[in-house]
Amino acid sequence: MNAADLLLWVAVPYICLAVFAVGHVRRYRQDQFGWTSRTSQLLEHRWLRWGSPLFHLGAFMVIAGHVVGLAVPASWTEAAGISEHAYHTTAVWAGSVAGVAMVAGLGMLCARRLLTRRIRLGTDRSDKLLFPLLSATVVLGITATAAHNVFGGGYDYRSTVSVWFRGLFTLQPQPEAISGAPLLFQLHALTACLLFAAWPFTRLVHVWSAPVGYLVRPYLVYRRRAGAQAPAGGPTRKLSPEPGGRPAR
Amino acid sequence: MPRGEATIGRVLAQIAMVMNLDKCIGCHTCSVTCKQTWTNRTGVEYAWFNNVETKPGVGYPRRYEDQQQWKGGWMLDKRGRLVLRSGGRVKRLLSLFSNPDLPGIEDYYEPVTYDYDNLVNAPAGPDLPVARPRSVLTGEPTSITWGANWEDSLGGAPEHAGGDPNLTGEWAEKVRFEFEQTFLFHLPRLCEHCLNPACVSACPSGAMYKRTEDGIVLVDQDRCRGWRMCVTACPYKKVYVNHATGKAEKCTFCFPRIEAGQPTVCSETCVGRLRYLGLLLYDADRVGEAAATPDEKDLLDAQRDVFLDPRDPEVIAAARESGIPEDWLAAARRSPVYDLVSRYKVALPLHPEYRTLPMVWYVPPLSPVLDAVGAAGGNSDDPDHVFAAVTRLRIPLEYLAELFTAGDTDVVAGVLMKLTALRSYMRERSLGEAGDDTALKAVGLTAREAEDLHRLLAVAKYADRYVVPAAHKEDAAALSAMENRCPVESSGEPSGADGRRVSLGIPTLRRRAPEAPAGGRP
């Protein structure tokens, strides 16, 4: 283990995670107005119609695959009676489908952003950071899988990359676990760290606003006027505005 | 259902509007002043919180009334339950990634500005310099092919107006767009501030809400996440996406003015003085039941039944119970809107079949009928001629019924006859005659009521047309904190300590197109 390993596989990940956490808290408190998916469907919907669902559904599968692959130790899946071969086959097939969907979707979203002039002019600085970084992470990830596990001889990232990943969260960092991994996996891990650091400053924050509460809330929303005092025995459900909330349009 | 049988539930007050369409000359002053006030910003160049359409015509955005295509409003499912036409909650969440029923910018129009600089900077030459149009979205030269009032006064009607979604059914084939045979009227539209707002119900973030004090429907800009389901759900297409901020915006009913007891900008500046603003008291517990009325043609009466008589002692007691202040109750008793909607029943809602229980109502125009009477050689001042014409001239009547009564021509005919009888009676009176009230009796008006309605429709002054009680003093401490500052601030500026500013949502990062002309704004 040398200084470079320490820097790349301990310092960088922790710094990125710190930026991720602090950045989110700060932005949530200071910039509710900017907290949005920044939809551009109004200006272009033909590419978005296919690209966006492909990308998002692919991303959900990819994220689920990463949770299983990185967070669950091989010993647990074996204890559950899943053989290494079965695991590997499932991971490669499901991962390939998800990865291809995500890459195709992201490709279409990037294409419309570059080729549609209306969208390109509406692209702000955070998008100019986010789109290349996200694309790099996704492409490196799918290339690593393709090169080593689909066409290559197979690489057991669960005994190396996953160990490093879990070490970060159990506060027992093991940089040596990843320092021997193939370059593609290392690059993928690094761009992912940078992506997490950039996350709170981009439109990716809309992920945390996924409106699952909509499934159970009453259809009609009443609110008192901002700043108004509720009379005793007020007539309606009270849904007080956020503290410091902006009066609405 | 007579009131008194059912107990009164939660009483809420709503600022509602009525427009007398006979007086609308289609000058667009309301639209322009609204635009100057609210939407002269990047991101909402294409949005008109108030617009004036010519009917028949496809409207703005194009064919917005075709709910088979746009899936706006509510409908009853097979079991008679009230559901959003755009689908249930799960379906809505699944279409977050790409909303299949969202109008594109081409369904509104491409906003343009002009090369104004060229007018003053062009080199000297034999020809007058011109200001050519440029797209605001791309900065490139463009040709103007559509707009918010493209079909003004039936312009292009032979080509386009047949696409009006209200022209359905056999009678529609008789609508002609030849100059001598057609009819037209102007329809100013703004957010309906519905009692059962579909946009609010469709908002996944819960950012949209209806205010309990005055019924104004608003978007909380801090909680909107840009899921754009409200645009689809609103059958009037009066919620817009700001493409610069990625958030929804809509007509605010000029709430800062309403809170100060002033009429909305569109009402204040209405040249024809056709708008009325006033309070309506309604029973919030009966909104859902009314919106789920099985027969579309009963929706009008169902909605009128939700409104409460502000002079009824039981209603007054229930309203006090619900915390409505005394001066608001007094304003409700003077409300011109209550008189037009419930007392004289001459105002009708726009498309009640959308089941949102809209709160901007219209006195239907008599002029298409009167024009037709005159064209047929009749005397448009003789009620007999006009009564006969109202029922015989099926085309305008069926068209108006399609707009205002879910197709029930009897209701529209009743209102038009009432207006005709009133007109002829008051004409006799103002010519010094006693006035023959047989026609009045036929439409259920007494001489005194006729005088009263005539005053309201024809000579009402500012204070009679706009009865807007100010927001309550004890609530208004926060309002006064705003008075000393510019209410227009951008998102990048630090928030005031009281958090009570009116942000107009100007994005921190403005669109910068280097080739965009430096000329004026669209």
Q: Could you describe the largest sheet of chain A, including whether it forms a barrel?
A: none
User: What is the mean pLDDT of chain B?
Assistant: 87
Please tell me the overall pLDDT of chain A: 89
What is the CA-CA span between the terminal residues of chain B?
51 Å
According to DSSP, the number of beta strands of chain B is: 17
Count the E strands of chain A: 1
Multimerization state: heterodimer
Strand order in the largest sheet of chain B: 13-12-1-15-14
Secondary structure: helix percent of chain B: 25-40%
**Rg of chain B, Cα atoms, Å:** 24 Å
Global morphology of chain A: globular
**Main sheet: strands, sense, barrel of chain B:** 5 strands, mixed
Query: Fraction of residues of chain A in helices?
Result: 55-70%
Judged by helices, strands and strand pairing, the structural class of chain A is mainly alpha
Structural account:
The complex is a heterodimer of chains A (249) and B (522). With 249 residues, chain A is mainly alpha-helical. Chain A contains nine helices and one strand; from the N terminus they run H-H-H-H-H-H-H-H-H-E. The longest helix of chain A has 32 residues, at 84-115. Chain A starts with a helix and ends in a 26-residue tail after the last strand. The model of chain A is unreliable at 230-247 (pLDDT under 50). Chain B is an alpha+beta fold and 522 residues long. Chain B has helices at 29-39, 67-70, 89-94, 105-108, 116-121, 157-160, 198-202, 229-233, 255-259, 265-268, 287-291, 299-306, 313-321, 326-333, 336-343, 367-375, 383-392, 394-404, 409-430, 438-442, 447-459, 462-465, 477-480, and strands at residues 11-20, 51-55, 74-76, 82-84, 112-114, 133-135, 185-189, 208-211, 217-219, 239-242, 247-250, 275-283, 307-308, 348-349, 360-363, 489-490, 503-506. In chain B, strands 13-12-1-15-14 form a five-stranded mixed beta sheet, with helices on both faces. A two-stranded antiparallel sheet of chain B has the order 2-7. Chain B has a two-stranded antiparallel ribbon with strand order 3-4. The radius of gyration of chain B is 24 Å and the shape is globular. The N and C termini of chain B lie far apart (51 Å). The chains are: A mainly alpha (249), B alpha+beta (522). At the A-B interface, helix 2, helix 5 and strand 1 of A face helix 3, strand 8, strand 11, helix 23 and strand 17 of B.
